[in-house]
Amino acid sequence: MKLSEAVRLLRVKRPPAPYGARTLARCYSIDDVARVARSRLPLGARAYLDTGAEGEYTLHRNRAALDMIEFLPEQPRRVTSVDTSTTVLGQQIPLPIVLSPIGAPRFFHHEGERAVARAAGHAGIPYGVSTLATVPVEEIAAQTNSPLWFQLYVWGDRRDARRAVERARQSGFSALLLSVDTNVRASREREKHTGLDLPAPELPLLTFFEGALHPTWVWHFFASEEISFPNIGPPDHRSRNKIKEMFDGSMSWQDLGWIREVWDRPILLKGVMRPDEAVRAAEAGLDGVIVSNHGGRQLDHVPATIDVLPGIVDAVEGRLEVLVDSGFRRGSDIAAALALGAKAVLVGRAHLYGLAAAGEAGVRHCIDILATELRRTMALCGVRSVKELDRNLLRWRDGGARSAASAGPGAERMAVSFEH
Q1: What is the CATH number of the domain that holds 234?
Q2: Which one of 109, 214, 294, 365 is the catalytic residue?
Q3: 289-305: average pLDDT
């Protein structure tokens, strides 16, 4: 090859910057964005973002289980376009993706929920807002036209929880996610090793010493308004004292009574890992369940959500909608969950990495990555729409015994779908 020909092949210009954020120019996957995010965060914030409970077996199990899934594409099949739209809780959305509720996102970027809400609005997908949001629900609602879902922790003084639900309803939130897997907060040991000991929301002194290596984060942290939890108390440091009263183990099925008095819209139970619990939710008239182990951040040594999802879908027999979260990092992961019967997938860390890396632009870029991967996976599988995703496209690398055993009662009939 002549030198002149080789020069023409060289790419000397930089790739385009997604949404103007140069730091995202070479981020082609969620893992790429995560590396940028970690480089921008001091130690305590990184620990809060990445850690799991106790030995972190469930944290790693979520990914390991998704990695065991194999696709069996139907080819050749004409697929000139792919339709990723779906309907969740009666609302049509362009992607089967929901941005999951996360507490205190302003630890990762000074705009926090404001940036995430705008990104969700750009994509037209729902955004779940935590009880422990660091921005008032009224202000979050002003940032987006997309569906907003309010995630509720129930604790001792029901008056505060009731007021939080009423404010979300008045702000136009369209669904309530009732978390059932956080009655008592887990021990996250990697957080503690950095000096971070939530639910006390103060960052350890080490984080600020290390802040010299992350001056942009430190500047915005001190230049922005004080971090507080304005949806459970006053919008100042006094709301942080409320957290010490939470996670007291007092929530039960009886709480549905007062919740229905103040909430007249869809309710989903978040944190379901057993088919019989999902059936009870259906019998109680709930609109959906979210199969979740809290991203491996609560009870350790529980199954991966993708393992129990099929049994739960089968058990409810279409009486309510089934969604899933925990460990999803690829569009192919989302395709697998939809094929197993989920209506949509909630992504938590996958969008927080984008928030930490580049604010709103980073979240938008992460949504684009997942959407592109989902479309590509569907096209390569010979699937034209999410309605065509089914279990015949999948098998487990170990032949299915593992998924059937861990899915719980009623899941045995799933095994045949995954046998070699």
Answers
A1: 3.20.20.70
A2: 294
A3: 95
